[in-house]
Amino acid sequence: MRVILTLVRKDIANFLRNRAAVGLTFFVPVALIYIFGWVFGLHQKDTGPTGIRLAVVNASTNPAAQKLVDALATETAFHVITTRELPDHTTRPLAEADLRPLIHDGKFRFAVVIPADVVRTDGIGLHLKILSDPRNEIETQMVNGLLQKAIFSHVPELLGQSLQARARGFLGEARSDQFNRSLARAITTAFGGDPATVQREIEAGGLGLGTLAQPAPAPSAAPPAPPAPAQAKGATPVQAPSAAADFLSRLVKIDQEQVVGKDVRSPLATQLVGGWAIMFLLFAVSASSAAFFDEKSSGLFQRLLAAPVTRAQLLWSRFVYGVGLGLVQLTTLFTAGRLMYGIDVFGHFGSLMVVCIFAAAACTSFGMFIAAIAPNAQAANGLATFFVMVMSATGGAWYPMSLMPEFMQQVGKLTVVYWSMEGFAQVLWAGRSFRELLPVLGVLAGITAGVMAIAVWRLNHKRMFE
Amino acid sequence: MLSLRSVTKRYGALTALDGVSLDIARGEFFGLLGPNGAGKSTLMALAAGLRSPDAGTLTLDGGVVTPADPRTRTSLGLVPQSIALYEELSADQNLRIFGALYGLRGAQLRRRIDEALAAVQLTDRRRDPVKTFSGGMQRRLNLVAALLHQPKLLLCDEPTVGVDPQSRNAIFDYLTALNRAGLTIIYSTHYMEEATRLCSRIGIIDHGRIPALGTLDELLTRLPFEEEISFPATPETAPLAALLGADGTLVSADGRHRFQPRADFRLSAFYTRAEALGLPPRLFTAARPTLEAVFLHLTGRNLRE
Ligand SMILES: Nc1ncnc2c1ncn2[C@@H]1O[C@H](COP(=O)(O)OP(=O)(O)O)[C@@H](O)[C@H]1O
Ligand SMILES: [Mg+2]
Which of A11, A159, A344, A451 has a C-alpha 20 to 30 A away from that of A232? Predict the structure, then answer.
């Protein structure tokens, strides 16, 4: 044991003398965790994308279409552009014909065209045109999602109008009128209200249930009821913004309950810290194992083995060193995570240390494996860089695994990175007890044992320690 | 003290040591003289228990030397052929690590390190990283690093390669003093001057065999001639060189021919021939043969090929 401690001390002294290694192990990941905190918006109070430039051309006279434009304008994720500046510094509204060249020039990457026939008559649904330069797929998906959200929550009557138009197509004008009238009558019989008003609402796509949103009072007796002025002017009925949306939200009432991670500011923070930590730990232990080659070629192994030191002690001292380095590095980075993002490191300190030890052991075995299969130090460094990058990408160190295709997610589960991060998440995010951690610890221990077995076999086979 | 009995070591198809038998007595300063690739380092590695022989046995003080048993190692020290030091670390740190591996601790370790550094004049550089040392200083440190635990047998594998004359002399003086104090030394080299100057007994090694073994005088008396003659290799001496092949061995290197006559060849005949070819006597130098001549005689090759 003394021999191993001496050898470990030797590795530590060498590490501390190597400024580049110390920087790469501690300072670079802390810097990256900080920088990517900005990228993921962890430093701001409210997260989510902001200021995506979105051009909107409204060719429809439907008042609901204008409401959609207004709704998009209030969405913080979007910076809505509706006009175009001409060379003489005057502006005019954007036209659909402008969009393609402007997207091409990179003025914006997304544009929505609300055509004159926004309400489809050939089927149930809306007709919107979205032009995009999907340079960034994640962004594109996000923009689509936000557009749908804006339509559902702000202008559901557009969908209602589409239903109405479709019904008219099927039933004919007279019968559809009659249907609406009887529907309005049925509603007012059941819930009260003026049948004529309700019928106008239904025809405007409001499903006639707007009145239900306002509890009880009859439309005539309710001064604040938004539909009233519109009706009074006899203009096209405009549904109160909230009414139909509110109705929809009643139809699908989602009670959200966050089951895990209540104490943590963001799961992304845990993921961010754990991911970068594991990646740089893998680099550190690979470099340490690649040092085997230098010790061999410089004759140091001869010197050490001529002393009362066995090959096993040489090997396992490097393992102990790797685990120790990993433990110190992970603790340092999580402490940085605590200072930057409030990750609850000290609340689960014991469990976290256990996971860190197991993760560090698995990473160290990986470093040994690289040294075992590589023919020389350069090859070891190259292989390590390649494998660490691949494992970090597929194992979810850089971005959430749920963004990846199913198949890649399965591949990712074969990596040390995935299981280490799973361990961190279970402790820091879900606050699992030690017992609940056992499966993850078992997997990490299994990886360590398996990979070390192969590494030891290969190292002996190629006479590394002779 | 150290005995090799018919020791053979192969690396794949290559036989690095070929049935070597050798006995090193306590207190000897034994030289292993041979060119690169002769098998010197392989013999050192086997003696240090770093590798096991494919055939034959090695015993140290009666106990078999094997890689599996680290306990007999405390009685021997190995100075590897390459500079086996942690070059980022200071001289002090290196010595502390190697001393600790032999179980030295605390005040005893500190004292041994102080003595070792003083012996090779590195005391005032002890805190500097080894990589800032000159080649000679690194060699000196490489040497004392094998001596902290006070071994009984020191294996020095070409310890002066790439060393300035000053460091070389310091190393020679130190080793001689240690040997006088009772340390048994096996010293490998491809410099015959080193073997001549240092060693009480010399083994000539080539292609994994030891064809001759003995003191310097014993080796020299094995030669069938008392003097060898050297002369410049020029066009005008070429006819003479062509004549000599039948009368002994002629080796050419560095622009000179060296002629080692056969036992029955009379030197007067040589000069008669030279005169007949019109070559003046001042071209020829006759000299007492050296170890190099022994090597040449035994192997037909120069030591430094
Ligand atoms: N690890 C090895 N693998 C294969 N061949 C080796 C190895 N070590 C030495 N050799 C070969 O064995 C022969 C003897 O080498 P070595 O003992 O190093 O000679 P020396 O030290 O006298 O120069 C050389 O031909 C060398 O190339
Ligand atoms: Mg050698």
Answer: A159
